[in-house]
Amino acid sequence: MLMKSPAPTTSTNDPIAAAFAREEKSGLVYALWGRLVVLGVLLFYVLATLPAERSLNYAAIIVLFMALGAVPHLLRRWGMVWIGWTIGFTLLEVAILTYMLIVPPPFFLEGWTPQINLRLVNFLYLGVFLVGMVLSYSPALVVWTGAASIMAWSAGVLWVASLPGSIAASSKDALDSSLTPQEIVKTFLDPNYVALTNWYNQLVFLALVTMILAITVWRSRRLVRRQVVAESARSNLSRYFSPNLVDELAGEGGGLDRVASQNVAILFADMVGFTTLSEKMAPEAVVAMLRDFHSRLARTIFAHGGTLDKYMGDAVMAHFGTPRTGTDDASRALACGLAMVREVESWNAERASRGEPAIEIGVGIHYGPVVAGNIGDEQRLEYTVLGDTVNVASRLEGLTREVKTALLVSDDLITAARAEAENARDLLAAFTREQARTVKGRSAPVAVWRLDPAKLPGPAAS
Fold first, then answer.
1. Which of 126, 135, 341, 450 stands 20 to 30 A from 289 (CA)?
2. Listed residues 187, 217, 235: the one ending a domain
3. C-alpha–C-alpha distance, residues 410 and 392, integer Å
4. Does residue 181 share a domain with residue 106?
């Protein structure tokens, strides 16, 4: 009784290898269907064009090869996953095909010998069978099929050469003999002559085709792996960085793993009154609102060249000046905060037209030194920033309720923005200096500036 074998396991640490294993399984299915289609066409051809006696013999052979290809597939479908099935049936099929190509069928011309069959182009059908294995997407299976073909064909040729009456010789043997040219030609034309030189060339052909096909499949898999790794890197980077930085960073490999200390602008944005608002909404509506809120803020962050660090419930954290510092990090952070306020105002106009309540936002921005890099373990890494600057920015966002403003920034950010560029003056004009505020974790008060809606400039360019 056949027992079901457990499916082969693939390390979860290499999802690409697991994907290749799945593709190899599906590749065997493609190879089966490709074979069935080709053999079906041949079956139709022989039944339609050959005499009944010959067509039935060929039809039986074709049906046999259909069955031989289907059996391993059915065994896998039934859970009997064992590589030996594929290896064994491949060898069996090659052996049967070799026999069919060498041994003349009973309805052939009288006096037709296996030696004559060796001189025909029947051998090329082994090459077709070998090429079909490329669909399996497995270099190992291609190599095995090539090796099995070489072994089966060699066994067939040597068997014919050992038959009584066979004249086995190479071209070199004939040329080096004392036979006259007429006698050499007569030997070549003898129905029992076996040309060993042809056999040598056939083995070289099979070996070269096997090598080329295996390398082709291997290179294809390698290319796919590189593309998957590159796209995965791009996908991960696109979660954090603006599109204009993704292509550049994707080519740097593990550059983000290097921890660096640098000055950056940290921005926290939060939906004010989210808990009270969500209590009156269905769960699906809450999720839809959060997604809309997050997507609007993310677009605004990327439009200003910022790095999206993470979502924290209804809050968003971003930084400007990562992964490398720029000449206008503070100015871009300030412009981004103003753009977020405008974006929420525009969103509220849309919500009002649908009879939905308005959304309020609180944004806090601070500028100063942080430690930036990939944080975590091998299973989960996250590009983020750490330090007192992050804590102060978070506290400033929380103070927006107390100060009654949508945007509160530190004096350090204002100073950095003022030093960066002349065009920052228009941004700074919208802010009014507040009294210093005490924030949790800081003994000394923090000088802050609040957004004055009456001084809010027109839409800022992204």
1. 450
2. 235
3. 9
4. yes
CA-to-CA separations, 415 to 392, 410, 449, 462, in angstroms, rounded:
16, 9, 11, 21
> What's this model's pTM, rounded to 2 decimal places?
0.54
Same domain membership, residue 225 and residue 284: no
Is residue 4 included in any domain, yes or no?
no
Residue 136 backbone phi and psi in degrees, to 5 = -70, -15
Report residue 179 as tokens. 């036979």
Report the distance separating Cα 358 and Cα 369, nearest Å: 36
Q: Could you read off the pLDDT of 133-185 as tens digits, one per residue?
A: 887 778 888 999 999 999 999 999 999 888 888 887 766 655 556 666 676 66
Q: Domain total for the chain? A: 2
What is the C-alpha to C-alpha distance for residues 380 and 439, in angstroms, rounded to an integer?
Answer: 32
Q: Rounded to whole angstroms, what are the CA distances from 461 to 305, 331, 336, 340, 423? A: 12, 12, 10, 13, 11
Q: What are the phi and psi torsion angles at 410 (to 5°)?
A: -85, 160
**Residue 308 CB-density burial (10 A; 0-12 exposed, 13-18 middle, 19+ buried):** buried
Residue 80 is encoded by which pair of tokens?
């009997």
Residue pair 267/320 in contact by the 8 Å Cβ criterion: yes
Record the tokens describing residue 264, joined without a space.
């950056």
